[in-house]
């Protein structure tokens, strides 16, 4: 599966490296020349091109040692059952969500929080997302575990993406960029249209910040390098960033998603959906994408 | 007490010598990769060659898990023993070092002095772990808490010996293999689409049930007395 990832997202300019499917440089006569069955299976399952982005919780752990087939299968079974009980909408980092969770200490026995999703972490049942909002002048970040049974409702008020996959820098940005009205009405996303990318560049509060945003490669900050204090600028530009990471194929293979795994998960999802719909309890659909119009 | 040896994971017999293979010949089972021994009371002895199942334990009972801990390799004193190290500022070339290893008066280093070295891969026992769920089709036990060892390492499970958590009524023999029951048409119980034979403790949340919702009775009751009712003295007899 290295070839697929390589061809898709990497350009080794100047080396002329080409990965031919089935090639084996040491023993060419023993190479498997049969064509891969995955493209055919992908078409049959109506494979979603951006599956790892839509369902990051169904991905495999980036730590190679923690990829256990049996454990992943059992967790996936639990996740699909939960998704049949609770409608978990599609959302990305940068989307505005409203989460209603059960809280036994409040008078109404429930707690509703509206905020922008700033990060999504972990794979499997432990998948969590963090919502940020500014309440009465104080920045509040609440981390929700997606498969926590006390969550009653998740609504996506505004479906959009941002320039970054991690908006943790909003903690050092001006509060207006993190303030969202609790009573805001949802903006429906027309099915079949691509997910809008909000290319907003936030203005930061005066430096120094809680983290070195200027070297973390955050696209959504307006001119972070200039805004940083001279003390930090004395350090080298690439103190923490490693330029070689974009060429690291082994790292990509070990941490990334493969087409084989994605198709397996999609197949499981569709089989599960079908069996539960036939049982007649609910018609909720799990395998769907906002960017793809389904008939 | 009898010593019962349990084997796991079938392997190729040709990779092992005659003496090792003989162990399994007497039991009539394929050659196993891993072996472990347990002390068992005479009334609970399994038969020689009997296949053990997850149902040997009961959901809700407490067990003791024993195994080799995670292998951390060669580690410094700060990680291995929790030493505090030295300050970042004002210290020359010494931030994660051991520091002093003794005093002038002793004129030696005490045996057993905590220093950097190999950490982990040690035999440890964690008692009092509760089994909360079991998957009977996949033979998987879900426990509440942590067990020693890395992913893929073997683990020995036995009944908890602590008095408070020792299983009270143990049905002996705990479980016997029988013919797998099938439905009337002859199809196996294993439904391929994520419907497993599972056992849960009553308090554990099941994912096929709706979200947890709290009602009035879940709310916290204030410690102050209810001022709407009259304060009546309780007369002691």
UniProtKB/TrEMBL annotation, chain A:
Keyword field contains Mitochondrion: yes
What are the record keywords, sorted? Answer: Mitochondrion, Ribonucleoprotein, Ribosomal protein, Transit peptide
Family, per entry? Belongs to the bacterial ribosomal protein bL19 family.
Q: Check the record and name the Pfam families matching this protein.
A: Ribosomal_L19 (PF01245)
This protein is called what? Large ribosomal subunit protein bL19m
Q: Which domain of life is it from?
A: Eukaryota
Can the keyword Ribonucleoprotein be found in this entry's annotation? yes
One term of GO molecular function: structural constituent of ribosome
Q: State the organism of origin.
A: Mesorhabditis spiculigera
Please name the GO terms of the biological process aspect recorded for this protein, alphabetically: translation
TrEMBL record, chain B:
User: Where is composition skewed (Basic and acidic residues) in this entry?
Assistant: 218-229
* Assigned keywords, A-Z: Ribonucleoprotein, Ribosomal protein
Q: Superkingdom of the source?
A: Eukaryota
GO CC, alphabetical: mitochondrial large ribosomal subunit
GO biological process, any: translation
Q: Does the keyword Cell cycle apply?
A: no
Iron-sulfur as a keyword of this entry, yes or no, is no
Positions of region (Disordered): 218-237
**Similarity remark:** Belongs to the universal ribosomal protein uL3 family.
Name the PANTHER family for this protein. 50S RIBOSOMAL PROTEIN L3, LARGE RIBOSOMAL SUBUNIT PROTEIN UL3M
Indicate what this protein is called per its UniProt record.
Large ribosomal subunit protein uL3m
Q: Specify the species.
A: Mesorhabditis spiculigera
